Amino acid sequence: MGTKYVPRRLWCFGLEHQARLMNFIPRGRNERSGYEMITGKTPDISEYLDFDFYDLVWYWRQPHPSLSEHDRELARWMGVAHRVGSDMCYWLMPVSGVPVVNSSVQHVTADERRNPELTHRIEDFNTRLNTRLDDTNFALPGGDIDDFYSNDVYEIPTQDDTQNGDNDVNNRPEADDIDSYDNLIGATFLLDPLKSPDNVATRATVVRRKTDYLGNPLGRAHANPLLDTREYEVELEDGTYDSYFANTIAENLYSQCDAEGREFNAIKDIIGHKTDGHALTKADGHHVVGNHLRPKRTTAGWKINVEFTDGATSWLPLKDVKESNPIDLAEYAILNRIDDEPAFKWWVPLVIRKRNRMINKVKKKYWRTTHKFGIRLPKTVAEAFQVDKENGNTYWADAIAKEMSKAKVAYIPIEGVTPEEVRANKVDQLRGFQEIKCHIIFDVKMDFTRKARFVAGGHMTQTPNSLTYSSVVSRESVKIAFLIAALNDLDLMSCDIGNAYLNAKCREKIWFVAGAECGPDLQGCVCKLVRALYGLKSSGAAWRAMFSEFIVNIMGFKPTRADADVYMREKYSQWGHPLL
């Protein structure tokens, strides 16, 4: 907090934030966080990943903001507000010096810090906030609390309240007596094999309650196992001791029993087989049904040696292993060439066929991407021109020209510079810009019209999440709008905005080398993106913000409280009645 010059009046927020982070950091032998050891749940740290304490952020004061720039205010991020609002709510310190809670929060980006107008606004915010939170504004008269409360002297009497047993030391049970009241003492369970050497489950026995230096038991019992904080000493198979919480012990016990409490163990591997002399021979393994030989369905006479997850081995009847691990047993039989024995021959082929069908269903389909509707799809501009030449037409060339006539507004050429100079950071106006590649993607519509789209390689940029998030109207809002229209006999109108993203300004600093699609005059030249081009991570959010700002400020619409992506505007009929 000293490196960020956090005012001392806000250190309580910083200490609470750091304490929460320490709850989520794994430590100790079990590599589990304190939160997980107490509750048994894996902590959700998504709320803590995007911001650091006292980061400079933007926030929107309206309940359902339009995310346009005219509504946002500066603040300092002070932690996650768990008991206020919904998920992803944060404590913020605005210029007023009074903490607020808000969920519409975004980073102040490095590009915004370099903007002269925003730089002046940020400096003014920091000055006013530091002045508001200065310790001199909260000093008591005389500089000492005794000067303010000079005559207040309190003595808190101590009394022995033995009626409720608070200080009744004589009647406390001894440390050894604690175990006689506990139902987990003596329980044996298997630890998670994934955390044990060689993936072998370790058997552990609960020995006693863990106590502090005064002999008092640690933790408190609770009817809900997740809230049971009792801690126990556990003896492992190798004679060593470890400590586990009651919820961990209960979780392992319940996971190793069925609904009636019967303990079960999982088979790890099949390591052998034998017969007891009563198995059918190959000569006696068939019977005749309607002039056809049918295999006899039997598993008698065979024993299977299995290894359990706890390392123990046992000889089990073939029938039991077949019911619990049919695929493993079938693969073992084929590998050891006993699948033609009568006890295996009647069921192993069926199990293998089912296994293969399940595997085949998991395989992804490979779609043929070289043609669509029987028309060859080019991968590059040069290939598109070659296809036109081979077919004796200009379909693909016309599609490219149509697309670039609209997309040319998305970039401006930078004259007098080469790509090598920009990459060497020798061009001042492109310093700090990221280089990407732009290309054309091709498609064929259902009416066989050729379609070309100029897109950017957005995967090559590093864009913060605050610039890429873009909300959409919910399905429920659309259904409600349809219902209102149907009940009031209203007409529904819709429209499609062609090349919609190109209407918004580009939020990222991007440059690229023009290709053949940009024309022979610009091919190989350095170009700077100025509009939100398809393919960029921030294009959707830029278009949404621009569209929202336009219909709010120009057309007079307002976002609804129920859904920020549904806008309404009052309108009056010719008789002066308000319409919506």
- Helix coverage percent of residues? 25-40%
Please tell me what the overall shape is.
Answer: extended
Structural class: alpha+beta
Rg calculated over all Cα atoms: 36 Å
Uncertain regions spanning at least 5 consecutive residues: 161-180, 363-367, 576-580
User: How do the strands of the widest beta sheet line up side by side?
Assistant: 4-3-2-1-5
Average pLDDT number: 80
Strand content: 15-25%
Task: Characterize the structure shown.
This protein has 580 residues and is of the alpha+beta class. The protein folds into 4 domains: 8-136, no CATH class; 192-255, no CATH class; 267-362, no CATH class; 372-572, no CATH class. Helix content is 26%, strand content 20%. The protein contains 15 helices and 26 strands. Strands 4-3-2-1-5 form a 5-stranded antiparallel beta sheet. Strands 6-7-8-9 form a 4-stranded antiparallel beta sheet, covered by helices on one side. A hairpin with a 5-residue loop joins strand 25 (571-572) and strand 26. Helix 11 (381-391) runs antiparallel to helix 12 (395-407).
